[in-house]
Amino acid sequence: MSNYKLKSDGGLKRGAEPIDIITRFERIPTHIAETSEEGARHVARQIAEIIRDRSMQGLHCNLALSSGKSPVGVYRELVRMHNEESLSFKNVEIFTVFEFYPVGESEHQSHTHTLKEEFLMQVDIPLENIHILNGKVASNDVTTYCRNYETMIRKKGGIDALLLGFGDEGQIALNESGTYPNTRTRVVALSNKSRKYASSMFYGVENTPTKALTMGIGTILSARKVFVVGWGENKSIAFAKVIEGNIDSAVPGSYLQEHNNIEITIDEDAASLLTRVNTPWLVGTCIWTNRFIRKAVLWLCQQVGKPILKLTYQDYIDHYLGQMIDDTGSTYDKINIQVFNDLQHTISGWPGGKPNGDDTTRPARSSPYPKRVVIFSPHPDDDVISMGGTFLRLADQGHDVHVAYQTSGNIAVHDDVVIQIVDSARECGFEDRYGEICELVASKKKGQAEPFALRQLKGSIRRAEAKAACRHFGINDRTNVHFLNLPFYETGSVKKGAVGQADIDIVVDLLRRVQPHQIYAAGDLSDPHGTHRVCIEAVLAALKQIIEDGDEWLNDCVMWLYRGAWQEWDLDMVDMAVPLSPDEVIKKRHAIYRHLSQKDIVPFPGDDKREFWQRAEDRTQATAQLYDKLGMAEYQAIEVFVKYDVYHQ
Predict the structure, then answer these.
(1) What are phi and psi of 166, to 5 degrees?
(2) Among 63, 66, 307, 524, which residue's Cβ finds the most Cβ atoms within 10 Å?
(3) Which residues are catalytic, by number?
(4) DSSP H or E segment with residue 201
(5) Distance CA 373, CA 481 (A)
(6) CA 585, CA 579: separation in Å to the nearest integer?
(7) SS3 call for 552
(8) Taking the model in full, what pTM does it have?
(9) Which long-range contacts (CB under 8 A, 24 or more apart) does 276-280 make?
(10) Strand 30-33 to strand 262-267: parallel, antiparallel, or no bridges (unpaired)?
């Protein structure tokens, strides 16, 4: 069960309007779950009901299933229902939705392999009832093969229920942008973006297939019931387009608007850009808390292109915010001043608190001073990339700063970097292991986990880089730098495990040794199964254990959340904003430079071609520009944080 969820503040008033009013912009029925776990249970129960209904009629139930990160929770819940609630799958026939081509079902990167591992081999489905898309069919037979697959589906009575996830750009199955709605099962060419996304599974884009077999849009639309699931903020743009946008071939998922029996189930993070979540004042009556008022006013500033204190009564009325003025009993100018002061008070150049200063309106309290601080960094560079300026401020202002690197980050070191570093050691006259390491690299087998010795070496490279960055900020790398090497990460492959007690115990031990007054952790809301998300779960599970054990030091501790290299907190959520000077921006950049293995060539860079230091500077400078446009002081860059209440969240 997920521990990590940011507390919502304000929003739609439940029951004030009928559901068809507040969802009037939505063109597909959508269930918003509080968590991905709740959403998975919601879908699994409906699939189980379909299976049981068909069984009571003496009929088979034909399910079309896809693999991927989003449906995993549904499969786990179905397995639980099989084990604990006697849900039988003996009357079920399975049709897989897509497969890489040419990839065999026994290969670890195969979607069929994943589906079998996560679900099919854990329940009582007869093997003869499992019909897979064979990624190894001969190229000269593939067209006939796909046609026969469609024929088999029709002969079996068609698909009763189909379960899908979405790609980040609204792809369904492996149907790329530009797909026509009448397409059937076929071979498709994968886009560069799709191949890059899948490249981590294949240990490099050069090993990633260029084609796939997939059910077409027409096949999907012919299913009697379609379930779509998705979790995490990184899916929010795609879901907003699919659910509220026009039907567009550039967003294949939008064709699902034409289906008469479909439900999309997403968590609150994936739903964050839907109108009823993002701008609920446009569809219904709202509860106006101070933080929610800030959200609405900042949205209004963006709509009219004005700073806060220049907003007029007419601006509020023209943009459906007259309700806020009426419900709060305030005037527009008082609201302007309230939000301006509220946002202004988030800015502080003293992230650890200003000693002996008036902290009435400052985000961080002045005492005690100096503070003990723990910065949790999921990978060995997230600390300097995401909050390097604040890290520097805390150190320069005399606080006892500790950094805890939660994972080794070893899979993100390119083989060429390893060989270069070993060669450098040889050239410097140290132990000559160049030939041995070259042989170790050459022993790697395509599609398999790297040799343990090579992973150890790559982890050592990243540790040395992290220590160098900490020394650059004046941190003692012998006493204040901690490499936790959480076990969940050390699988040897891109696919990682879940948080276990061993991970939690390691974090608990560190926290009890340091007993910090401040904790900083990466609070990403994107992939619910990604490394950053698992790392925050480990920290929160450790804090929960410490709370249950009654450790008194935690009463004097405040937790701050930062974001990763790709995204930043929306300003309506921000509790502390730390401004950086031009010199601090440069010093932060130099700390990022210490991570040489991540510079220029990164194994899994995604579509963003910028180096990490460029992403970091662009992000913090954009935040500073937002504050400036809202009427605040102008700064070179700003890093922002959200306060997390570990006791009441």
Answers:
(1) -120, 145
(2) 524
(3) 176
(4) none
(5) 12
(6) 10
(7) helix
(8) 0.91
(9) 276/12, 276/22, 276/23, 276/25, 276/26, 277/11, 277/32, 280/11, 280/12, 280/22
(10) parallel
Question: For residues 469 and 381, is the Cβ–Cβ distance under 8 A?
Answer: yes
| Burial label, 49 (beta-carbon count in 10 A; 0-12, 13-18, 19+) | exposed
Query: Taking the CB of residue 189, how many other CB atoms lie within 10 A of it?
Result: 12
Q: Are 102 and 209 in contact (CB under 8 A)?
A: yes
For the stretch 275-323, pLDDT in tens is 999 999 999 999 999 999 999 999 999 999 999 999 999 999 999 999 9
Q: Are 558 and 644 in contact (CB under 8 A)?
A: no
The candidate with the shortest Cα–Cα distance to 640, out of 516, 520, 556, is 520
To the nearest 5 percent, what fractions of the chain are helix, strand and coil?
A: 45, 15, 40
Gap between the Cα atoms of 538 and 533, Å rounded: 9
DSSP string, 142-186: HHHHHHHHHHHHHHTT--SEEEE-B-TTS-BTTB-TT--TT--SE
Measured CA to CA, the distance from residue 561 to residue 570 in angstroms comes to: 13
**Alpha-helical runs (H) found in 493-611:** 501-514, 531-549, 582-593
Q: How far apart are CA 174 and CA 215, in angstroms?
A: 8
Q: How far apart are CA 33 and CA 70, in angstroms?
A: 14
Tally Cβ neighbours within 10 Å of residue 211: 18
In sequence order, what are the beta bridge partners of 262? 226
Contacts of 22 (CB under 8 A, 6+ apart): 12, 276, 280, 283, 284
Q: How far apart are CA 101 and CA 209, in angstroms?
A: 6
Tokens linked to 376: 């949790």
Question: What Rg, from alpha-carbon coordinates, does the chain have?
Answer: 26
Strands (E), 410-487: 481-483
CA dihedral 493, 498, 501, 502 (to 10 degrees): 10
Could you tell me which of 531, 518, 217, 278 has the C-alpha nearest to residue 397? 518
Bridging pattern class, strands 61-65 and 161-164: parallel
Please tell me the predicted confidence (pLDDT) of residue 199. Answer: 78
pLDDT tens sequence across 428-458: 999 999 999 999 999 988 767 789 999 999 9
Task: Enumerate the β-bridge partners of residue 618.
Answer: none
**Phi, psi values for residue 118, rounded to 5°:** -80, -25
Partners of 644 in beta bridges: 559
Q: How far apart are alpha carbons 255 and 171 in whole angstroms?
A: 10
2-37 tens-digit pLDDT: 567 787 789 999 999 999 999 999 999 999 999 999
* H or E element, residue 415: helix 415-427
Q: What are the backbone angles phi and psi of residue 119, rounded to the nearest 5°?
A: -145, -60
Can you tell me whether residue 117 is helix, strand or coil?
Answer: helix
**CA torsion 529→533→538→541, rounded to 10°?**
-90
